[in-house]
Amino acid sequence: MSSIAFIGLGNMGAPMALNLVKAGHEVVVFDLVADAVARLTGAGARAAASADAAVQGVDVVITMLPASKHVEGLYLEQNLLGKIPAGALVIDCSTIAPDSARKVAAAAQVRGLEMIDAPVSGGTGGAVAGTLTFIVGGAPAALERARPVLEKMGKNIFHAGEAGAGQVAKICNNMLLGILMAGTSEALALGVANGLDPKVLSDIIAKSSGRNWATELYNPWPGVMEHAPASKGYAGGFGVDLMLKDLGLAAESALASRSSIPLGELARNLYSLHSNGGSGRLDFSSIVNLYANDRD
């Protein structure tokens, strides 16, 4: 079994690290939030006082951080790459700008380290169940080396291409996710405003041509799906501000490649309105409240 440093124990990182502990790996954890570290040490992980301390003597380093500035800050500005043992494998599971992923991977290569960008899809439920999808950018040999570790946290592993390609694919996926959640919310709100039961309408859509991930697994209307964040006050899950960040990354990528993303930009504006209204920390499915509140 590998010795693994896991840095970043948020809603996604904590259950991912826990699955590695359950699989028998020696896992050293670090996070700025002490309670997050305590939960993992209670499950069998070892705590480190800092990110630098966490990577000492490990075979694999995994990070799950909020944004590009945190990844570049940790690996480059704080020079974590310079503290990682030679020959170790570095796996960044954060969703960040492709150029940031390429920049850090190039610096890792200079230091003799193999690194892949491996952002995930599947939400907190997938993180807990160990059924995440990993979307990987980097050298094929590095992916094969990472595969035994990734398989303990996920069910599907895709190689998108070279460094940064995993981030490009993840950005495309999350842009579509934001669009379909906004569209599903709009359709449900319209139906309810015209007297339909949201669960009945959701069942109809799920068996018709409008079916999608939101109607089948992550319904945005409260009470339709017991285990969805919508039925828990939109707590946990994938935050509005994180979706807004990812839609912003899509906009940046579109500008850089001169691509047209009219629906992606519309979704970004909707999530910006929703966040500015005080819902930034709620689950992204709470976007339905933009439409539902129109009735008030």
UniProtKB/TrEMBL annotation:
Q: Which InterPro entries match?
A: 3-OH-isobutyrate_DH-rel_CS, 6-PGluconate_DH-like_C_sf, 6PGD_dom2, 6PGDH_NADP-bd, HIBADH, HIBADH-like_NADP-bd, HIBADH-related, NAD(P)-bd_dom_sf
* Name of the gene: Hgd_3
Q: Which GO terms describe its molecular function?
A: 3-hydroxyisobutyrate dehydrogenase activity; NAD binding; NADP binding
Gene Ontology terms describing biological process: L-valine catabolic process
Pathway given in the UniProt record: Amino-acid degradation; L-valine degradation
Q: Which SUPFAM superfamilies match?
A: 6-phosphogluconate dehydrogenase C-terminal domain-like, NAD(P)-binding Rossmann-fold domains
- Note the NCBIfam families from the entry: HIBADH
Keyword tags: Branched-chain amino acid catabolism, NAD, Oxidoreductase
All residue ranges annotated as the 3-hydroxyisobutyrate dehydrogenase-like NAD-binding domain in the record: 164-291
- Pfam families linked to this entry: NAD_binding_11, NAD_binding_2
Family to which this protein belongs: Belongs to the HIBADH-related family.
The major lineage groups are: Bacteria, Pseudomonadati, Pseudomonadota, Betaproteobacteria, Burkholderiales
Q: Which domain of life is it from?
A: Bacteria
Q: Which residues form the active site?
A: K170
User: Is NAD given among the entry's keywords?
Assistant: yes
Enzyme Commission number(s) of this protein: 1.1.1.31
Question: What Gene3D superfamilies is this protein classified in?
Answer: N-(1-d-carboxylethyl)-l-norvaline Dehydrogenase, domain 2, NAD(P)-binding Rossmann-like Domain
All copies of the 6-phosphogluconate dehydrogenase NADP-binding domain together span 3-161
Task: Give me the reactions it catalyses.
Answer: 3-hydroxy-2-methylpropanoate + NAD(+) = 2-methyl-3-oxopropanoate + NADH + H(+)
* Name of the protein in question: 3-hydroxyisobutyrate dehydrogenase
Q: Does the keyword NAD apply?
A: yes
The organism is Bordetella pseudohinzii
